[in-house]
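#data-curation
PF: Archiving a pair of folding outputs for the training set. Convention for this channel: one message per protein, sequence first, structure tokens after, nothing in between. First:
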Amino acid sequence: MLTCLALMVSTSLLGATALEAVPVTDADAPTGMIEIRGVGAGEFDAALWQGGMLHLLPDERHPFLEPRPGRFRNIYAPSIVKLPEGWRIFYGGFDGIETGNDFIYQVDTPDFMSFGERHTVISHGDFIHVCNVNAFRNPDGSFEMMCTVYPDPGGNNKPGYFSSPDGETWNDSPMPYHATLDDLVAIEGYEDYEGADINGMNVLLREGDKRRIYHNDFHNMGTVFRATGTDGQHFEFEQGVLETPYFVNDVKVFQDGGQDWYLMGLHRNTQGLWYSLSNDGLEFEPTQELLTPLGDEDNYIVAIGWVREGNQILGVLYGAGAVPVLNENRIFARWLQHRVVFEAEDGTRYEAESSYGPERQRFALPTEGPVSGVFHVYAEDGETPVGEPVPATLTPGEVWEIRSRLEIPTSWGCIPARPTEDG
């Protein structure tokens, strides 16, 4: 008897993949809904970002994170750090506290669906406020962050630098660490640095043994600047990197086409977020609009933090509020996802208008079902088809997953295995 071997081959060798829709039998969607999983963003695609075609779906939890109960409730400035077991979201503001002083907080999440206990990381200490955090985790498990502290001896906002070997002890002190004047950052060569007002526009980026700071200055508007140092606290001014009315708030580096791509996120304390790209981190392309408010809840946007996993950008968290005085902010989320449209046999099309975390979408199916049709799947630009339409029969309350499967050409035929004992 002749048997055939199952082959394990690279998709790059096959040159073709196909999609399939698979029911998830151990999960349920809300009543009257269909949930689609496996729709998160793929590898960073520079052309997609340069073209400005981004299928960003708002999370249905709007806002994504609320402040804890208490007298002062105003959280924003999210900075998202990948952990081996999930992510850590750092953020600043008043998280249900009894005084109007900004602190830095953190909360861990395995998947952006559930969240652990919140902790205070940095206290304002010698300052009135410490906020606008931008953080990262090093390969050895240590953490570094740049924050805005106010006031410096001259009465201005300045960056402060904080580090931790394990995420528990910061600047040699158990959480919460109380910030001091010794934590202030110095930038040599920047004209009148003592008089600079750097508030909500301080980004720390690690490249090898170099640390970069990207910043604006309220007393020198219209330019994003860069400086470089080695210890996170002492920097040498380099140059302006982008002429823009917007304020830098996050910079991450991705790879595509054998090149580095610096992705800068910017805000303006107004109705929008923007981004800019660069191949060297010193000269950035003109800004493009990333998103605008969805309604009153996020009408005034004050901060942006990229969500990344390896070389994928999953989406963005941002701080925003309903009032221009910016004291009622919450944290909102939008996820970069494939666009999925279900087309029923009668031609009716169903499509999600919101997401549920980075990998899921939901849409209403207003019938008892079942409904037969096909899934149309598009890339993260929302327009480019991915594979052929996928047939499925849906019943409200079901969860489905979109997967890739290999298409092995039939001309390959059967590869004989060794004969079995029965011939």
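PF: Second:
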Amino acid sequence: MTNLLKVGLVQQANTPDKSSNIDKSLKGIADCAAQGAQLVVLQELHCGIYFCQAEDTNMFDLAEPIPGPETEVFAAAARRYGIVLVTSLFEKRAPGIYHNTAVVFDKDGSMAGKYRKMHIPDDPAYYEKFYFTPGDLGFEPIQTSVGKLGVLVCWDQWYPEAARLMALAGAELLIYPTAIGWESTDPQAEKERQHGAWFTVQRGHAVANGLPVVTVNRTGHEPDWSGVTGGIQFWGQSFVAGPQGEVLYLAPPDQELNTVVEIDLKRSEDVRRIWPFLRDRRIDYYGDLTRRYRD
């Protein structure tokens, strides 16, 4: 494995036209591959709208089995361009059991592995608990031809435990397909606080674990078809941070783009030698982390 890894980010806006969304993702993959990407990361639920803005049983019709038609399309893209590809799909596992699942394809089109979103939010305009069964595959990195990928999904990015467990299992890169934005009634000051917290906590995961972080978020406005809210303005700003939290790339908030960022994976070893946080962990005193709360 080379130390220098070229990572493609596909930041896109989505519509209710599923085939159009998939075509846009495929064009983004092709564009990144043309720029020399070895690994391409797509945003959360890139095949459709962010349907979790309201609770609607008809939205379950968007889900597909894994493997299934969507995985065939993206496996073919990975094979065609000779890249490792991180996708984010709405998985129909069984009647009444659906997951928010990241599927990783290796450069030969084979399925390298999958990760089912573990932390499921239930906030206004983000009613994911209605749709998604919590993941049951744990925090296991996925081995690929470009390295061991710690793939997590959106709401997982707020949890230091998830990033740490991926790092402890040998992940060389933390990857977060994401769909997050502002609900229309939030005042500007609150919007700035929300984005600042999101940006900061993930850079913190990079620092605490000495690993690069790749986050790919969607952009554009998506209306709330139920009419309860004014919809979500997704804030884009996909980014890549190095193992000391340094910002290697930051996308604009309101622009679709396909870009490639080079990451030096060797820097993780260099940084961990000067900041040996894993060495100094007091694992003999961390048992209470498995409790809900220390009363």
